[in-house]
Amino acid sequence: MELILISIIASIVTYFVPKGMAKMVALFGAILTLAYNSFLLQSFVADGTKKFVFDTPWFSDAVHFSVGIDGISMLMLLLTNILMVVILLGAMRKEWKRESLFYSLILFMQAALIGVFVSNDGIMFYVFWELALIPIYFLCALWSESGDYKTTTRFFIYTFMGSLAMLGSFIYLGSKGLVDGHTFAYDNLVAVKLSTTESMWVGLGIFIAFAVKIPLLPFNAWQPSTYAESPTPASQLLSGIMLKMGLYGLIRWFFPMVPETYEFWSNLIIILGVIAVIHGALIAIRQNGMKRLTAFASLSHVGLIAAGIATITIVGLQGALVQMFAHGINVVGIFLCIDIIQRRTQTRDLTQLGGIAKQAPYFAALFLILVLGTMAVPFTNGFPGEILLLKSIFGYHTILGVIAGLTVILCAVYMLRMYQKGMLGKPNGETFHFPDLQKSEWPALILLSAMVIGMGVYPQWIVELTEASSENILKIIKETVEGVS
Amino acid sequence: MIALITIFVGALLCLYLGIKKQESFSIPIALISLAAAMTVTVIQLLSKDVWPIEMKMRAGGMMLFDFSSQLFSLLLMLSLFLILLSLKPVKMMGADLLGLLMFSLCGGILLSGFTHLVMMFLGIEILSIPLYVLAGANKKDSSSNEAAIKYFLMGAFSTAILLMGCAFIYGGTGSLDLEGLNKASYMMGHMNLATPLVFSGVLLILVGLLFKVAAIPFHFWSPDVYEGSPNRATVFMATIVKAAAFAGFIRLFAVGFGELKEPVWMNAVIVASAISIVLGNAAASMQNNAKRLLAYSGIAQTGYMLIAFIGLDFSANVWNLLIYLTGYISATLVVFTIIDILDTEGKASDLKAFEGLGVNNKGLTFALIVAMFSMIGIPLTIGFVGKYAILTAAFYVKPWLVVAALVGSAIGIGVYFNFFKYAVMSRTDKPLPKLNTTAGQKITVAFCTLVILLIGAMPMIIANFKELFF
Predict the structure, then answer these.
(1) Is there a contact between A260 and A363 (Cβ–Cβ < 8 Å)?
(2) Alpha-carbon distance B378 to B381, whole Å?
(3) Average pLDDT, integer, range B145-174
(4) B123 closest CA partner among B69, B47, B74, B54
(5) Taking CB atoms and an 8 Å limit, are B424 and A142 in contact across chains?
(6) Which value, to the nearest 10 degrees, does the dihedral of the CA atoms of residues A334, A336, A339, A341 take?
(7) How far apart are the CA of A310 and the nearest CA of chain B, in angstroms?
(8) Which of B310, B362, B425, B458 would you mutate first to test chain A, the one with the most A CBs within 10 A?
């Protein structure tokens, strides 16, 4: 509750402070939120129940403003708030038009994301889910690189349609549930028993919303162009945090809502996920635009995470959570590096780059750490999550596991190709005067790299943080399934 | 009743000032009488514990000012108050036309409180006839004349159908009183005795009222009339006329024909609603005239409001409709005020006129964005609260209608993004300069935006009111 308030207030203040001050105020707001979040973490006990609960009637008795934090939410909050500081540090290097509006939208986004991760009520979840879309829409459209708003509008329409489907499903669940009292409470929605047909339709609605956001394969048409056209902070927000909304939704909302047909949905999601792994990776290998490459790489990674979630095993869920955290850090870092390169050379086309490593060794070293993290080299943060995910998929079906396992190789191919073409070789005209890291780039990249290594060495804390909550969710699904059969 | 008389006297005074050529006083007089009427209504609403309201406010057995009617008439008066505030300086608006607006409002208030079909008919006529004049108020503009004639013919036609329906109902039930109708329809609804006469009577009345609220398939007049009429008449039609017609509509169908819902009229309303939402939004997305666009989007909004008729609990339905109308009126007022500000010469209001609005007019653009979000139904606006209330109530009855509504909403995004496209996204070389706005226009826009956001963010404010009154 207080977290949302802090960022909303910071957002409003940022809008009204004089020009030039806005970025400092925004950064201060983000750091304050992170500090408060760490303070909450201090007194947090990960036993699977919701902590820091705040609950008051909102629309009517049926819809409450109800928040609570359990282990999974806490992990997502940490991810959001850490990345928000990094994104702001990265964004500060550039002068933006209408600066106060820009930073104010970013902070507003943070508030909405926090709301998504803590909400305990179906309608409230939907409300924040939509609210997160509005600032990102304006960020992408008003500051887009080509001045073309069509891509962004397509993105908005895609996701909005998906969300409407989810709203329909939630209302249907609500109409089947309690008539009086807090109808849309998470526990009450979960407790609703559906027939198989109903469960399929309800599941379809929620699935579309999350699949567009993640994005899973047939729903990913908005993704590459939106990433490529958006300003870097918006790409970072989209890929680093907003995708996690979809994955979080799968874990927290989707499977517990439709346990009756979970076998169908998990088959579907695993297959779509594994296809996305290969499809994204193969396209990424052929890309020359660095942002597009990262977009497809992201598609591939996220497909693997979704497949891991869909196995509905404790290993899969934990792998997914670890990997969600890791992927957020890596992809934000890589977008930051791309932005640094682009700012200095005016291009992000791999064919025109090369030799940066000689000119800027520190930058190259930090970039390499992030690349290795993405490739899931041992002792980086990508490794533990990916191993757990692959293990869970192997447990589900061996051949699918083998196919998904190719991701390790393919990922190495495209990431190393990017690094090699971009950073190694001889400097050309574009990259001959490539200054090394400056001012706020230092703390941002150092922080990210430190987390890449730190998490690679000691990932256990995430597992401990989320174990009880994950088991709770599995228990909900298992209980309903046994009750039905 | 006192409110009605106050407004009527105010209207007469306006006309008198028009004769005396003292037109500069007419707007203050109108505003004062509206403010007085609103104050009286609020006091009556709040003092409901002091006197039994039925005894106090029954007028000749044909009117009953109960809570729903008081709330509706409050909404109507407030809207006219805001419209008058946002008007341009007096020159654009003669005192006689102002008087007509006030008379029309009287009709709206009658319509929200009738208990007798004759009074309903009178209300509709008093509401409509001044509008036929207002639509043609730009005498030298041919499209305004066209609008007036179209509106008059269509209006007369629909009124005739409505009257026919009333006659059939009288033939079938022997009563024109709402209570009598309620009893008769209770018998018929429960014993399945609805005669063909009653059947066709209800459906004819339904057709007449669907004309008035502009629902597909009886919507053809609305885009042309909206486009041709002067802005002040259009905004009046889009907000007050629609709200008043709905007030009468739901009163008749909730109280009078409530028990005939299942056998007679529900399916017709559902079909009209679903088609209005989907086709209205689809047609709106293809317009490039702002007023035509709003006419079509108004048709779609009508569709949503029709969904409010099918919920199970009628007093909750009235309440949901009231919330939805409040949201719709606030958003419409914002957009029309901005159109009026842009439309300096009274020329066609092309969407291109919005180009580059966002550069120098931050406040107006923000209000426009909020209003559009409310129309789409994005959370934290009153539009979402209204849609949520209506759709959850309807879900128990017809789940697939809600699906149609959601599909329509998805199409609707494209409609309202047309405004963003010009106002916010365009990178034109010649953005609009800072526009001159009067204090009244600022107040209207700010007030409506505040309503949209405040009720959107904290719906419990009005939910508490509901418990007070129902």
Answers:
(1) no
(2) 6
(3) 90
(4) B69
(5) yes
(6) -70
(7) 27
(8) B425
Q: Is the CB of residue A87 less than 8 Å from the CB of residue A105? A: no
Q: Which of A28, A30, A25, A2 is nearest to A14 (CA)?
A: A25
- List chain B residues with CB under 8 Å of A158: none
Number of structural domains in chain B:
1
Round to whole Å and give the CA distance between B183 and A70.
Answer: 56
A478 burial level (CB within 10 Å; 0-12, 13-18, 19+): middle
Residue among A323, A306, A283, A247 at smallest CA distance from A410: A283
Residues in chain A whose Cβ is within 8 Å of chain B: 57-60, 62-63, 123, 126-128, 130-131, 134, 138, 141-142, 147, 149, 153, 156-157, 160-161, 164-165, 167-168, 171-172, 174-175
Alpha helices by DSSP H, B192-220: 196-213
Q: Which residues pair with A214 in a beta bridge?
A: none
For the ranges A45-54, B371-380, B415-424, the one whose mean pLDDT is highest: B371-380
Determine the average pLDDT of the residues in A35-60: 81
Taking residues B116-132, report their average pLDDT. Answer: 91
Q: What is the pLDDT of residues A310-348, one digit of tens each?
A: 888 888 898 999 999 999 999 999 999 888 888 888 877
Ranges of H-type helices in B377-438: 382-395, 399-420
Provide the pLDDT confidence category of residue A485 given band limits of 50, 70 and 90.
low
Are A178 and A59 in contact, with CB atoms under 8 Å apart?
no
pLDDT in tens, B3-52: 888 999 999 988 888 888 777 778 888 889 999 999 988 888 877 654 44
| Other C-beta atoms lying within 10 Å of the C-beta of residue B263 | 18
Residue A151's pLDDT is: 79
Inter-CA distances, B46 with A125, A343, B63, Å: 36, 64, 20
Q: Name the residue with tokens 């007050």.
A: B240
- Output the average pLDDT for chain A: 84
Supply the ipTM of this predicted assembly. 0.81
